C-alpha cells in the first residue's frame, strides 16, 4: 500500500514594492511544481520566505525584528517534530548576504532576486548542507526558468495582474540602492511578455500592470529581432482580446518619450493614471540626486501628458531631508505639489543607504527637521488627494471589482484613476467591470452605487463613511466619466 504524503506548505511574506509581490508569486509558482501549496498561516509552514525590501533603513530593519519572532516559531515546529526552513529573499538578501546568516541564526537560506528559479534546489540543499547563501547575478535569464502560474493560482490572485517586463536600473540616483540590489537594466522580450499576458487573460484577468524599476526604459526584443519601445509594447498588448485595462509602473521622467505620451492619447485601455516620481521640486536637490532632469522638464512632461489625455491623474514619490536640503528647497517641493495637484503621492524621509553616494555627505538633515517637513508635505499631498477624490463624486465611472469590501454586502474595486471604490453589489461582480455612480468619499476609498442600463442606481451604499455632497459641476475639473464611458471596457 502506498502512503500519500501531505503536501508541504509554503508561506511567503512580501515587503516593499510591487516587484516583490510579483516575485513572491513566482516563488510560489516554482515551488508549486515541487508539490508545495501556499498557506495563509505561518504556523503551518514547512518553508517560510521573507521577501524583503532594502529601499529605506526602516524597511530593512523590519526583517530582523521579524526574524527574531520566527525563532519561536521554528522552535515550536521542532518540538512538534517538524522542520521549518526559513528563507530570506529579496533586496536585503542581495545587499547583506552572509551578514544575515551571521546576525540571524534562524535563517537557513539567503536567496537574491536573480536566483528564484533555483529555489527548489536551494531549499533541498539547505536541508542537507545546513545554511546556504545564493546572491549571484547568474548569466542565464531567470525568467526563462520561472514557472508559469496555474490557472487556479491566477484566478485566486484577482482580476488585475502584475507582469514584470523590466528589472534593474542604470540611473544611479545618489540616494538609491536599486542599481546595486537589482543590478543593471534588463528588458524581457516581447514574445515572453505576450505569452504571459495571454495566459493571464485566458484565466480571467482583465487588467495588466506592467512593472519594472524603470519600466518606461524597457526596450525588449521584438519578434522581428529589433528593440521595441514600451509604447510599441502597449499598442500591441491593447490588441490582445480580453485586455480591458493596461497600466505601467514605475516610470522615470527622462524616459517619457513622445510615443509613450501618444499612447496615452490613442489607447482607451491605457488607464488615465500615471505614477511618475519626481522626489523633489528643487533644481539644486534634483541635481544633487542625479535625477537627470530639472523641475521645468518634469512640469513639461506633465503638460504633454495632460494634452494627450486631459483626465490623467498624476501620482509621485517625494523624499524630504535629502542631504543639503534647505527650507527654500523644501518650499520649492511644496510649490511643485501645488502646481501639479497630484491625485496621490508617497513621501519619505531621506534614509542614508550604505554604499550610495548621498549616504557619505556630511550635510545630513536632522531627524527632527525631516519629520517636520514630512508632516507638512503629507498634509499638502492629502489636501490635493481629497480635492481630486471629491471631484469624482456625482460622476459615473467604470470600476473593476476585485473582491469583497469592508462591510457586509459591499464589494471593492478600482476606478480608472486607481481609487478604491466600495459598492453594495452581489459577489458575482468580482472580476467584472461595471458602471458605478460615485456617491461619497471616505478616508481611503470612495463610495458608489451600481448603475443599471436605464441610469438609475438600484443598489445604494449605506456604510458609515458616506458623506460628501455630490457636485457634478465642479469648475475646472475634467469629467472622468467622459473618458471612462469611451474606455473600451
Ligand atoms: N530614502 C528615502 N526614500 C527613498 N526612496 C528610494 N530610496 C530612498 C532613500 N534612500 C524612495 C523614492 C523612490 C521610492 C520607491 O522610495 O521616493 O521613488
Ligand atoms: Fe532608484 Fe528609481 Fe533612481 Fe533607479 S531611477 S536609481 S530605481 S530612484
UniProtKB/TrEMBL annotation:
UniProt keyword list: 4Fe-4S, Cytoplasm, Iron, Iron-sulfur, Metal-binding, S-adenosyl-L-methionine, Transferase, tRNA processing
* Binding sites annotated in the UniProt record for [4Fe-4S] cluster 1: 17, 53, 91
Q: Where in the cell is it found?
A: Cytoplasm
Q: Where is this region: Disordered?
A: 458-489
Where along this sequence does the record place binding of [4Fe-4S] cluster 2?
169, 173, 176
Q: Which residues form a coiled coil?
A: none
Gene Ontology CC terms, in alphabetical order: cytosol
Start and end of every MTTase N-terminal domain? 8-128
Enzyme Commission identifier(s): 2.8.4.3
**InterPro entries attached to this UniProt entry:** Elp3/MiaA/NifB-like_rSAM, Methylthiotransferase, Methylthiotransferase_CS, Methylthiotransferase_N, Methylthiotransferase_N_sf, MiaB_methiolase, rSAM, rSAM_horseshoe
Cofactor(s) annotated in UniProt: [4Fe-4S] cluster
The Radical SAM core domain covers: 155-387
* Top-level lineage group: Bacteria
- TRAM domain mapped to chain residues: 390-452
Asked if the keyword Metal-binding belongs to this entry, the reply reads yes
Q: How does it assemble?
A: Monomer.
Purpose of the protein:
Catalyzes the methylthiolation of N6-(dimethylallyl)adenosine (i(6)A), leading to the formation of 2-methylthio-N6-(dimethylallyl)adenosine (ms(2)i(6)A) at position 37 in tRNAs that read codons beginning with uridine.
Name the chain's protein.
Answer: tRNA-2-methylthio-N(6)-dimethylallyladenosine synthase
- Per the UniProt entry, what species is this protein from, by scientific name? Rhodoplanes elegans
**Annotated gene:** miaB
Amino acid at each position: 500500500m502506498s502512503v500519500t504524503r501531505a503536501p508541504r506548505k509554503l508561506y511567503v511574506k512580501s515587503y516593499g514594492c510591487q516587484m516583490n509581490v510579483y516575485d513572491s508569486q513566482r516563488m510560489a509558482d516554482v515551488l508549486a511544481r515541487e508539490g508545495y501549496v501556499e498557506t495563509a498561516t505561518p504556523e503551518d509552514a514547512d518553508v517560510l520566505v521573507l521577501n524583503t525590501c532594502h529601499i529605506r533603513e526602516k524597511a530593512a530593519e523590519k526583517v530582523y525584528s521579524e526574524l527574531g519572532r520566527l525563532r519561536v516559531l521554528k522552535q515550536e515546529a521542532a518540538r512538534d517534530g517538524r522542520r521549518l526552513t526559513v528563507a530570506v529573499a529579496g533586496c536585503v538578501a542581495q545587499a547583506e548576504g552572509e551578514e544575515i546568516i551571521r546576525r540571524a541564526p534562524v535563517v537557513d537560506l539567503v536567496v537574491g532576486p536573480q536566483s528564484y528559479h533555483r529555489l527548489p534546489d536551494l531549499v533541498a540543499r539547505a536541508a542537507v548542507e545546513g545554511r546556504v547563501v545564493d546572491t549571484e547575478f547568474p548569466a542565464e535569464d531567470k525568467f526563462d526558468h520561472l514557472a508559469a502560474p496555474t490557472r487556479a493560482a491566477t484566478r485566486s490572485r484577482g482580476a488585475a495582474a502584475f507582469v514584470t517586463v523590466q528589472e534593474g536600473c542604470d540611473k544611479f540616483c545618489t540616494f538609491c540602492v536599486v542599481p546595486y540590489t537589482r543590478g543593471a537594466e534588463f528588458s524581457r522580450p516581447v514574445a515572453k511578455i505576450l505569452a504571459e499576458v495571454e495566459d493571464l487573460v485566458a484565466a480571467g484577468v482583465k487588467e495588466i500592470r506592467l512593472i519594472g524599476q524603470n519600466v518606461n526604459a524597457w526596450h525588449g526584443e521584438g519578434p522581428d529581432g529589433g528593440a521595441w519601445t514600451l509604447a510599441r509594447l502597449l499598442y500591441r498588448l491593447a490588441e490582445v482580446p480580453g485586455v480591458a485595462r493596461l497600466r505601467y509602473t514605475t516610470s522615470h521622467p527622462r524616459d517619457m518619450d513622445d510615443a509613450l505620451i501618444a499612447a496615452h492619447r490613442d489607447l482607451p485601455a491605457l488607464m488615465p493614471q500615471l505614477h511618475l516620481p519626481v522626489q523633489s521640486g528643487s533644481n539644486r536637490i534634483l541635481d544633487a540626486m542625479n535625477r537627470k532632469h530639472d523641475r521645468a522638464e518634469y512640469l513639461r512632461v506633465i503638460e504633454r501628458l495632460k494634452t494627450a489625455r486631459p483626465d490623467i491623474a498624476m501620482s509621485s514619490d517625494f523624499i524630504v531631508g535629502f542631504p543639503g536640503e534647505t527650507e527654500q528647497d523644501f518650499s520649492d517641493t511644496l510649490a511643485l505639489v501645488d502646481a501639479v495637484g497630484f491625485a496621490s503621492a508617497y513621501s519619505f524621509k531621506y534614509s542614508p543607504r550604505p554604499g550610495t553616494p548621498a549616504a557619505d555627505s556630511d550635510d545630513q538633515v536632522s531627524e527632527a527637521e525631516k519629520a517636520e517637513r514630512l508632516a507638512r508635505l503629507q498634509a499638502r499631498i492629502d489636501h490635493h488627494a481629497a480635492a481630486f477624490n471629491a471631484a469624482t463624486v456625482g460622476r459615473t465611472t467604470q470600476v473593476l471589482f476585485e473582491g469583497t469590501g469592508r462591510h457586509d454586502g459591499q464589494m471593492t474595486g478600482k476606478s480608472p484613476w486607481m481609487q478604491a471604490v466600495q459598492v453594495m453589489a452581489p459577489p458575482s461582480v468580482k472580476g467584472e467591470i461595471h458602471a458605478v455612480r460615485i456617491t461619497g468619499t471616505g478616508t481611503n476609498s470612495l463610495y458608489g452605487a451600481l448603475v443599471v442600463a436605464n441610469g438609475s442606481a438600484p443598489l445604494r451604499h449605506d456604510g458609515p463613511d458616506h458623506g460628501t455632497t455630490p457636485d457634478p459641476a465642479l469648475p475646472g475639473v475634467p469629467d472622468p466619466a467622459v473618458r471612462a464611458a469611451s474606455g473600451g471596457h
